[in-house]
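Continuing from yesterday's entry. The apo prediction looked reasonable, so today I'm repeating it with flavin-adenine dinucleotide included to see how the binding region is handled. Same sequence as before; SMILES copied from the compound registry.
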Amino acid sequence: MGAPLLSTDFFDLDSLYAEEELLARDEIRRWARERFTPIVEDAHRDGRFPLEIALELADLGAFGANLEGYGCAGLSNSAYGLMMDELEYADSGLRSFVSVQGALCMYPIFAYGSDEQKERWLPKMSAGEIIGCFGLTEPDHGSDPGGLVTRAEDKGDHFLLNGAKMWITNGGIAHIAIVWAKLDGQIHGFVVPTDSEGFSAPEQRRKWSLRCSVTSELVLQDVKIPKDHLLPKAQGLKAALGCLTQARYGIAFGAVGAARCCYDTARDYALSRIQFDKPIASFQLVQTKLANMFTEITKAQLLCYHLGLLKDAGKADFAHVSMAKRNNVGRALEIARTARDMLGANGITDEYPIGRHMCNLETVNTYEGTYDIHGLILGERITGIQAYS
Ligand SMILES: Cc1cc2nc3c(=O)[nH]c(=O)nc-3n(C[C@H](O)[C@H](O)[C@H](O)COP(=O)(O)OP(=O)(O)OC[C@H]3O[C@@H](n4cnc5c(N)ncnc54)[C@H](O)[C@@H]3O)c2cc1C
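Holo prediction written out below.
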Protein backbone atom coordinates (compact mmCIF):
# COMPACT_ATOMS: atom_id res chain seq x y z
CA MET A 1 0.00 0.00 0.00
CA GLY A 2 1.47 3.39 -1.01
CA ALA A 3 1.27 6.53 1.12
CA PRO A 4 -1.86 8.65 0.48
CA LEU A 5 -1.35 11.43 -2.06
CA LEU A 6 -1.80 14.62 -0.09
CA SER A 7 -1.16 17.38 -2.63
CA THR A 8 -3.70 18.46 -5.21
CA ASP A 9 -0.84 19.79 -7.41
CA PHE A 10 -0.70 16.48 -9.30
CA PHE A 11 0.74 17.94 -12.51
CA ASP A 12 3.37 19.96 -10.61
CA LEU A 13 2.07 23.36 -11.70
CA ASP A 14 4.06 24.89 -8.85
CA SER A 15 7.18 24.30 -10.94
CA LEU A 16 5.67 26.49 -13.71
CA TYR A 17 4.49 29.44 -11.62
CA ALA A 18 7.06 32.14 -10.77
CA GLU A 19 8.47 32.32 -7.25
CA GLU A 20 6.78 35.67 -6.68
CA GLU A 21 3.42 34.16 -7.66
CA LEU A 22 3.85 31.26 -5.25
CA LEU A 23 4.93 33.60 -2.46
CA ALA A 24 1.80 35.73 -2.91
CA ARG A 25 -0.34 32.58 -2.81
CA ASP A 26 1.44 31.14 0.22
CA GLU A 27 1.00 34.36 2.20
CA ILE A 28 -2.73 34.34 1.56
CA ARG A 29 -2.94 30.63 2.36
CA ARG A 30 -1.18 31.12 5.70
CA TRP A 31 -3.34 34.10 6.60
CA ALA A 32 -6.62 32.44 5.56
CA ARG A 33 -5.92 29.27 7.51
CA GLU A 34 -4.66 31.06 10.63
CA ARG A 35 -7.05 33.97 10.74
CA PHE A 36 -10.15 33.18 8.72
CA THR A 37 -10.79 29.44 8.89
CA PRO A 38 -11.15 29.49 12.71
CA ILE A 39 -13.94 32.08 12.54
CA VAL A 40 -15.77 31.20 9.35
CA GLU A 41 -18.22 28.60 10.67
CA ASP A 42 -19.53 30.97 13.35
CA ALA A 43 -19.75 33.83 10.86
CA HIS A 44 -21.61 31.60 8.41
CA ARG A 45 -23.98 30.38 11.11
CA ASP A 46 -24.63 33.96 12.24
CA GLY A 47 -25.04 35.21 8.66
CA ARG A 48 -22.35 37.84 9.14
CA PHE A 49 -19.26 38.99 7.28
CA PRO A 50 -16.34 39.74 9.65
CA LEU A 51 -15.53 43.16 8.25
CA GLU A 52 -12.77 43.61 10.83
CA ILE A 53 -10.46 41.54 8.61
CA ALA A 54 -10.57 44.07 5.74
CA LEU A 55 -7.43 45.91 6.83
CA GLU A 56 -5.52 42.63 7.18
CA LEU A 57 -6.47 41.73 3.60
CA ALA A 58 -5.27 45.17 2.51
CA ASP A 59 -1.91 44.56 4.23
CA LEU A 60 -1.64 41.32 2.24
CA GLY A 61 -2.13 43.28 -0.99
CA ALA A 62 -5.36 41.42 -1.76
CA PHE A 63 -7.40 44.37 -3.08
CA GLY A 64 -6.80 44.97 -6.77
CA ALA A 65 -3.68 42.78 -6.55
CA ASN A 66 -3.32 42.62 -10.35
CA LEU A 67 -3.65 46.41 -10.86
CA GLU A 68 -0.65 48.74 -11.19
CA GLY A 69 -0.12 51.85 -9.07
CA TYR A 70 -2.40 53.51 -6.48
CA GLY A 71 -0.99 51.31 -3.72
CA CYS A 72 -1.97 48.09 -5.54
CA ALA A 73 0.38 45.11 -5.48
CA GLY A 74 0.84 45.05 -9.29
CA LEU A 75 1.11 41.25 -9.35
CA SER A 76 0.63 39.05 -12.40
CA ASN A 77 -2.82 37.76 -13.23
CA SER A 78 -1.65 34.27 -12.30
CA ALA A 79 -0.59 35.41 -8.82
CA TYR A 80 -3.92 37.17 -8.40
CA GLY A 81 -5.76 34.01 -9.49
CA LEU A 82 -3.84 31.82 -7.05
CA MET A 83 -4.72 34.25 -4.26
CA MET A 84 -8.42 33.87 -5.15
CA ASP A 85 -8.01 30.07 -5.07
CA GLU A 86 -6.67 30.23 -1.51
CA LEU A 87 -9.32 32.69 -0.35
CA GLU A 88 -12.10 30.48 -1.66
CA TYR A 89 -10.53 27.39 -0.08
CA ALA A 90 -11.55 29.21 3.10
CA ASP A 91 -14.94 30.49 1.92
CA SER A 92 -16.64 31.77 -1.24
CA GLY A 93 -17.94 34.76 0.74
CA LEU A 94 -14.39 35.81 1.59
CA ARG A 95 -13.31 35.51 -2.04
CA SER A 96 -16.45 37.39 -3.13
CA PHE A 97 -15.63 40.27 -0.76
CA VAL A 98 -12.18 40.60 -2.33
CA SER A 99 -13.41 40.05 -5.91
CA VAL A 100 -16.06 42.74 -5.60
CA GLN A 101 -13.63 45.22 -4.09
CA GLY A 102 -10.89 44.62 -6.67
CA ALA A 103 -12.47 43.42 -9.88
CA LEU A 104 -15.89 45.07 -9.72
CA CYS A 105 -15.15 48.39 -7.99
CA MET A 106 -11.47 49.24 -8.27
CA TYR A 107 -11.21 47.90 -11.82
CA PRO A 108 -13.99 50.11 -13.30
CA ILE A 109 -12.45 53.18 -11.66
CA PHE A 110 -9.02 52.08 -12.89
CA ALA A 111 -10.16 51.27 -16.45
CA TYR A 112 -12.93 53.81 -17.04
CA GLY A 113 -12.23 56.62 -14.55
CA SER A 114 -10.50 59.97 -14.95
CA ASP A 115 -7.05 60.54 -13.40
CA GLU A 116 -8.69 62.59 -10.67
CA GLN A 117 -11.17 59.80 -9.88
CA LYS A 118 -8.38 57.21 -9.72
CA GLU A 119 -6.31 59.36 -7.34
CA ARG A 120 -9.33 60.05 -5.23
CA TRP A 121 -10.64 56.54 -4.67
CA LEU A 122 -8.11 53.84 -5.59
CA PRO A 123 -5.40 54.38 -2.92
CA LYS A 124 -8.00 54.26 -0.16
CA MET A 125 -9.61 51.19 -1.72
CA SER A 126 -6.34 49.28 -1.98
CA ALA A 127 -5.73 50.21 1.68
CA GLY A 128 -9.15 48.83 2.64
CA GLU A 129 -10.31 52.22 3.96
CA ILE A 130 -13.03 52.54 1.32
CA ILE A 131 -15.13 49.46 0.57
CA GLY A 132 -17.09 49.25 -2.66
CA CYS A 133 -20.00 47.37 -4.17
CA PHE A 134 -21.17 46.87 -7.74
CA GLY A 135 -24.81 47.41 -8.64
CA LEU A 136 -25.81 45.96 -11.98
CA THR A 137 -28.53 43.35 -11.26
CA GLU A 138 -32.08 44.62 -10.74
CA PRO A 139 -35.20 42.84 -9.48
CA ASP A 140 -36.44 42.33 -13.07
CA HIS A 141 -33.09 42.18 -14.90
CA GLY A 142 -30.54 39.52 -13.93
CA SER A 143 -29.19 37.49 -16.85
CA ASP A 144 -30.35 40.29 -19.15
CA PRO A 145 -28.69 43.37 -17.61
CA GLY A 146 -29.08 45.37 -20.81
CA GLY A 147 -32.74 45.81 -19.90
CA LEU A 148 -31.94 47.64 -16.65
CA VAL A 149 -34.30 50.48 -15.75
CA THR A 150 -32.34 52.47 -13.15
CA ARG A 151 -32.05 55.91 -14.68
CA ALA A 152 -29.90 59.00 -14.37
CA GLU A 153 -31.05 62.46 -15.36
CA ASP A 154 -28.76 65.33 -16.17
CA LYS A 155 -29.90 68.24 -13.98
CA GLY A 156 -27.26 70.70 -15.12
CA ASP A 157 -24.93 70.83 -12.13
CA HIS A 158 -25.62 67.24 -10.95
CA PHE A 159 -27.12 63.89 -11.93
CA LEU A 160 -30.28 62.55 -10.30
CA LEU A 161 -30.45 58.76 -9.91
CA ASN A 162 -33.57 56.66 -9.38
CA GLY A 163 -33.97 52.90 -9.35
CA ALA A 164 -33.35 49.68 -7.43
CA LYS A 165 -30.63 47.03 -7.50
CA MET A 166 -30.86 43.55 -6.04
CA TRP A 167 -28.46 40.89 -4.72
CA ILE A 168 -25.58 43.31 -4.30
CA THR A 169 -22.54 41.86 -2.51
CA ASN A 170 -21.04 44.23 0.11
CA GLY A 171 -24.02 46.59 -0.44
CA GLY A 172 -24.69 47.34 3.22
CA ILE A 173 -21.02 47.72 4.20
CA ALA A 174 -19.84 49.74 1.21
CA HIS A 175 -18.77 53.38 1.22
CA ILE A 176 -19.24 53.69 -2.53
CA ALA A 177 -21.38 51.84 -5.05
CA ILE A 178 -20.60 51.51 -8.75
CA VAL A 179 -24.14 51.92 -10.08
CA TRP A 180 -25.05 51.14 -13.69
CA ALA A 181 -27.89 53.37 -14.89
CA LYS A 182 -29.31 54.65 -18.15
CA LEU A 183 -28.68 58.27 -19.07
CA ASP A 184 -30.56 59.30 -22.23
CA GLY A 185 -31.14 55.60 -22.97
CA GLN A 186 -27.47 54.58 -22.75
CA ILE A 187 -25.90 52.61 -19.87
CA HIS A 188 -23.24 54.48 -17.85
CA GLY A 189 -21.29 53.75 -14.67
CA PHE A 190 -21.58 56.15 -11.71
CA VAL A 191 -19.70 56.25 -8.43
CA VAL A 192 -22.38 56.75 -5.77
CA PRO A 193 -21.31 57.51 -2.18
CA THR A 194 -23.53 55.35 0.00
CA ASP A 195 -24.10 58.19 2.47
CA SER A 196 -25.87 60.19 -0.25
CA GLU A 197 -29.35 61.36 0.65
CA GLY A 198 -31.96 59.03 -0.84
CA PHE A 199 -29.61 56.01 -0.94
CA SER A 200 -30.28 52.96 1.21
CA ALA A 201 -29.05 49.36 1.20
CA PRO A 202 -31.40 47.04 3.09
CA GLU A 203 -29.76 43.69 3.71
CA GLN A 204 -31.11 40.54 2.05
CA ARG A 205 -31.03 37.95 4.81
CA ARG A 206 -32.52 34.43 5.03
CA LYS A 207 -29.95 33.02 2.59
CA TRP A 208 -28.92 29.37 2.47
CA SER A 209 -25.84 30.36 0.53
CA LEU A 210 -22.98 32.86 0.89
CA ARG A 211 -24.05 33.52 4.45
CA CYS A 212 -20.60 34.83 5.33
CA SER A 213 -21.12 37.72 2.92
CA VAL A 214 -23.33 40.79 2.97
CA THR A 215 -25.98 40.82 0.23
CA SER A 216 -28.19 43.90 -0.14
CA GLU A 217 -30.71 45.71 -2.21
CA LEU A 218 -29.70 49.19 -3.31
CA VAL A 219 -32.52 51.70 -3.33
CA LEU A 220 -31.92 55.02 -5.08
CA GLN A 221 -34.60 57.65 -4.60
CA ASP A 222 -33.74 61.02 -6.10
CA VAL A 223 -30.05 60.55 -5.29
CA LYS A 224 -28.04 63.62 -6.30
CA ILE A 225 -24.60 62.82 -7.69
CA PRO A 226 -21.96 65.42 -8.52
CA LYS A 227 -21.13 65.57 -12.22
CA ASP A 228 -17.59 64.30 -11.63
CA HIS A 229 -18.95 60.98 -10.29
CA LEU A 230 -19.77 59.73 -13.78
CA LEU A 231 -17.03 57.35 -15.00
CA PRO A 232 -16.16 59.00 -18.31
CA LYS A 233 -15.13 55.86 -20.18
CA ALA A 234 -17.82 53.53 -18.75
CA GLN A 235 -20.31 53.79 -21.58
CA GLY A 236 -22.59 51.02 -22.76
CA LEU A 237 -23.23 47.52 -21.42
CA LYS A 238 -19.81 46.49 -22.71
CA ALA A 239 -18.13 48.51 -19.95
CA ALA A 240 -20.13 46.71 -17.23
CA LEU A 241 -19.42 43.36 -18.88
CA GLY A 242 -15.71 44.24 -18.95
CA CYS A 243 -15.77 44.39 -15.14
CA LEU A 244 -17.58 41.05 -14.99
CA THR A 245 -14.88 39.46 -17.13
CA GLN A 246 -12.30 40.57 -14.54
CA ALA A 247 -14.33 39.14 -11.68
CA ARG A 248 -15.20 35.90 -13.49
CA TYR A 249 -11.50 35.31 -14.09
CA GLY A 250 -10.96 35.33 -10.32
CA ILE A 251 -14.00 33.11 -9.79
CA ALA A 252 -12.56 30.47 -12.15
CA PHE A 253 -9.52 30.19 -9.86
CA GLY A 254 -11.56 30.57 -6.68
CA ALA A 255 -13.80 27.62 -7.51
CA VAL A 256 -10.72 25.39 -7.59
CA GLY A 257 -10.05 26.38 -3.98
CA ALA A 258 -13.56 25.47 -2.82
CA ALA A 259 -13.29 22.15 -4.71
CA ARG A 260 -9.88 21.41 -3.17
CA CYS A 261 -11.20 22.02 0.31
CA CYS A 262 -14.09 19.59 -0.27
CA TYR A 263 -11.78 17.00 -1.81
CA ASP A 264 -9.18 17.27 0.99
CA THR A 265 -11.91 16.87 3.60
CA ALA A 266 -13.51 13.89 1.85
CA ARG A 267 -10.16 12.15 1.30
CA ASP A 268 -9.11 12.54 4.94
CA TYR A 269 -12.51 11.38 6.11
CA ALA A 270 -12.50 8.36 3.82
CA LEU A 271 -9.09 7.31 5.13
CA SER A 272 -10.20 7.48 8.77
CA ARG A 273 -13.86 6.40 8.67
CA ILE A 274 -14.18 2.66 9.35
CA GLN A 275 -17.15 0.68 8.06
CA PHE A 276 -17.27 -3.07 7.51
CA ASP A 277 -13.94 -3.20 9.45
CA LYS A 278 -12.08 -1.13 6.87
CA PRO A 279 -11.51 2.54 6.04
CA ILE A 280 -14.19 3.48 3.51
CA ALA A 281 -11.27 4.69 1.32
CA SER A 282 -10.51 1.01 0.65
CA PHE A 283 -13.78 0.47 -1.24
CA GLN A 284 -13.70 0.76 -5.02
CA LEU A 285 -16.71 3.07 -5.30
CA VAL A 286 -15.15 5.52 -2.86
CA GLN A 287 -11.82 5.44 -4.67
CA THR A 288 -13.36 6.19 -8.05
CA LYS A 289 -15.25 9.11 -6.52
CA LEU A 290 -11.95 10.47 -5.22
CA ALA A 291 -10.30 9.79 -8.58
CA ASN A 292 -13.03 11.71 -10.42
CA MET A 293 -12.81 14.66 -8.03
CA PHE A 294 -9.04 14.73 -8.24
CA THR A 295 -9.12 14.59 -12.05
CA GLU A 296 -11.62 17.44 -12.33
CA ILE A 297 -9.56 19.57 -9.93
CA THR A 298 -6.43 18.92 -11.98
CA LYS A 299 -8.22 19.81 -15.25
CA ALA A 300 -9.58 23.01 -13.70
CA GLN A 301 -6.11 23.95 -12.46
CA LEU A 302 -4.66 23.42 -15.94
CA LEU A 303 -7.38 25.61 -17.45
CA CYS A 304 -6.56 28.32 -14.91
CA TYR A 305 -2.84 28.04 -15.49
CA HIS A 306 -3.20 28.62 -19.20
CA LEU A 307 -5.89 31.27 -18.79
CA GLY A 308 -3.47 33.19 -16.54
CA LEU A 309 -0.80 33.04 -19.24
CA LEU A 310 -3.28 34.24 -21.87
CA LYS A 311 -4.43 37.09 -19.63
CA ASP A 312 -0.90 38.20 -18.84
CA ALA A 313 -0.18 38.18 -22.58
CA GLY A 314 -3.34 40.25 -23.24
CA LYS A 315 -4.85 37.36 -25.21
CA ALA A 316 -7.65 36.20 -22.88
CA ASP A 317 -11.07 37.24 -24.08
CA PHE A 318 -14.44 36.99 -22.39
CA ALA A 319 -15.27 33.63 -23.98
CA HIS A 320 -12.10 32.04 -22.55
CA VAL A 321 -13.15 33.37 -19.16
CA SER A 322 -16.73 32.10 -19.65
CA MET A 323 -15.43 28.61 -20.33
CA ALA A 324 -13.22 28.61 -17.24
CA LYS A 325 -15.86 30.12 -14.93
CA ARG A 326 -18.56 27.75 -16.18
CA ASN A 327 -16.46 24.60 -16.09
CA ASN A 328 -14.64 25.21 -12.84
CA VAL A 329 -17.67 26.30 -10.83
CA GLY A 330 -19.86 23.56 -12.30
CA ARG A 331 -17.30 20.88 -11.47
CA ALA A 332 -16.62 22.36 -8.02
CA LEU A 333 -20.33 22.15 -7.25
CA GLU A 334 -20.40 18.48 -8.32
CA ILE A 335 -17.30 17.79 -6.23
CA ALA A 336 -18.91 19.44 -3.21
CA ARG A 337 -22.06 17.34 -3.62
CA THR A 338 -20.03 14.13 -3.99
CA ALA A 339 -17.89 15.01 -0.99
CA ARG A 340 -21.02 15.69 1.04
CA ASP A 341 -22.26 12.21 0.19
CA MET A 342 -18.95 10.62 1.17
CA LEU A 343 -19.20 12.02 4.68
CA GLY A 344 -22.57 10.40 5.22
CA ALA A 345 -24.52 12.06 8.04
CA ASN A 346 -21.45 14.07 9.08
CA GLY A 347 -21.61 15.76 5.69
CA ILE A 348 -24.68 17.73 6.69
CA THR A 349 -23.14 19.29 9.82
CA ASP A 350 -20.97 22.39 10.06
CA GLU A 351 -18.32 20.34 11.85
CA TYR A 352 -17.00 19.98 8.31
CA PRO A 353 -16.74 22.73 5.66
CA ILE A 354 -18.35 20.78 2.84
CA GLY A 355 -22.01 21.72 3.37
CA ARG A 356 -21.03 25.38 3.55
CA HIS A 357 -19.00 25.17 0.33
CA MET A 358 -21.79 23.24 -1.39
CA CYS A 359 -24.38 25.91 -0.54
CA ASN A 360 -21.97 28.72 -1.41
CA LEU A 361 -21.20 27.21 -4.79
CA GLU A 362 -24.90 27.35 -5.68
CA THR A 363 -24.50 31.14 -5.63
CA VAL A 364 -21.16 31.08 -7.42
CA ASN A 365 -22.76 28.94 -10.15
CA THR A 366 -25.50 31.59 -10.55
CA TYR A 367 -23.83 34.95 -10.09
CA GLU A 368 -21.69 36.68 -12.67
CA GLY A 369 -23.56 34.81 -15.39
CA THR A 370 -25.26 31.50 -14.71
CA TYR A 371 -23.83 28.17 -15.86
CA ASP A 372 -26.32 28.12 -18.74
CA ILE A 373 -25.71 31.72 -19.80
CA HIS A 374 -21.97 31.00 -20.07
CA GLY A 375 -22.87 27.92 -22.12
CA LEU A 376 -24.78 30.22 -24.47
CA ILE A 377 -21.85 32.66 -24.67
CA LEU A 378 -19.69 29.73 -25.75
CA GLY A 379 -22.45 28.51 -28.05
CA GLU A 380 -22.45 31.86 -29.81
CA ARG A 381 -18.66 31.74 -30.17
CA ILE A 382 -18.87 28.24 -31.64
CA THR A 383 -21.82 28.76 -34.01
CA GLY A 384 -21.93 32.49 -34.61
CA ILE A 385 -25.59 32.35 -33.59
CA GLN A 386 -26.78 34.20 -30.48
CA ALA A 387 -29.23 31.92 -28.69
CA TYR A 388 -29.84 33.85 -25.46
CA SER A 389 -32.03 36.62 -26.84
C1 LIG B 1 -25.43 35.97 -3.22
C2 LIG B 1 -25.46 36.72 -4.52
C3 LIG B 1 -24.61 37.80 -4.71
C4 LIG B 1 -24.69 38.57 -5.87
N1 LIG B 1 -23.88 39.68 -6.01
C5 LIG B 1 -24.11 40.54 -7.04
C6 LIG B 1 -23.42 41.80 -7.11
O1 LIG B 1 -22.56 42.11 -6.27
N2 LIG B 1 -23.75 42.66 -8.11
C7 LIG B 1 -24.69 42.38 -9.05
O2 LIG B 1 -24.94 43.22 -9.91
N3 LIG B 1 -25.35 41.17 -9.03
C8 LIG B 1 -25.09 40.26 -8.04
N4 LIG B 1 -25.77 39.06 -7.99
C9 LIG B 1 -26.81 38.79 -8.97
C10 LIG B 1 -26.44 37.73 -9.99
O3 LIG B 1 -25.45 38.18 -10.86
C11 LIG B 1 -27.73 37.28 -10.69
O4 LIG B 1 -28.49 36.55 -9.73
C12 LIG B 1 -27.46 36.46 -11.93
O5 LIG B 1 -26.96 37.25 -12.98
C13 LIG B 1 -28.75 35.74 -12.45
O6 LIG B 1 -29.80 36.63 -12.52
P1 LIG B 1 -31.22 36.25 -11.86
O7 LIG B 1 -30.98 35.81 -10.47
O8 LIG B 1 -32.13 37.41 -12.09
O9 LIG B 1 -31.72 34.99 -12.64
P2 LIG B 1 -32.50 34.98 -14.05
O10 LIG B 1 -31.79 35.83 -15.05
O11 LIG B 1 -33.95 35.26 -13.81
O12 LIG B 1 -32.30 33.46 -14.48
C14 LIG B 1 -33.11 32.40 -13.92
C15 LIG B 1 -32.80 31.13 -14.69
O13 LIG B 1 -33.13 31.31 -16.07
C16 LIG B 1 -32.02 31.00 -16.89
N5 LIG B 1 -32.03 31.87 -18.05
C17 LIG B 1 -32.13 33.25 -18.08
N6 LIG B 1 -32.09 33.68 -19.34
C18 LIG B 1 -31.91 32.59 -20.13
C19 LIG B 1 -31.76 32.39 -21.53
N7 LIG B 1 -31.74 33.41 -22.40
N8 LIG B 1 -31.62 31.12 -21.99
C20 LIG B 1 -31.60 30.08 -21.13
N9 LIG B 1 -31.73 30.20 -19.79
C21 LIG B 1 -31.87 31.45 -19.32
C22 LIG B 1 -30.79 31.22 -16.01
O14 LIG B 1 -29.68 30.47 -16.47
C23 LIG B 1 -31.31 30.74 -14.65
O15 LIG B 1 -31.20 29.35 -14.58
C24 LIG B 1 -25.63 38.22 -6.88
C25 LIG B 1 -26.43 37.09 -6.70
C26 LIG B 1 -26.36 36.35 -5.55
C27 LIG B 1 -27.25 35.15 -5.38
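Comparison notes:
- The longest helix spans residues 237-272.
- The beta strands are 132-135, 151-154, 158-169, 176-183, 186-193, 199-200, 215-226, 230-235, 274-275, 278-279.
Will overlay with the apo model tomorrow.
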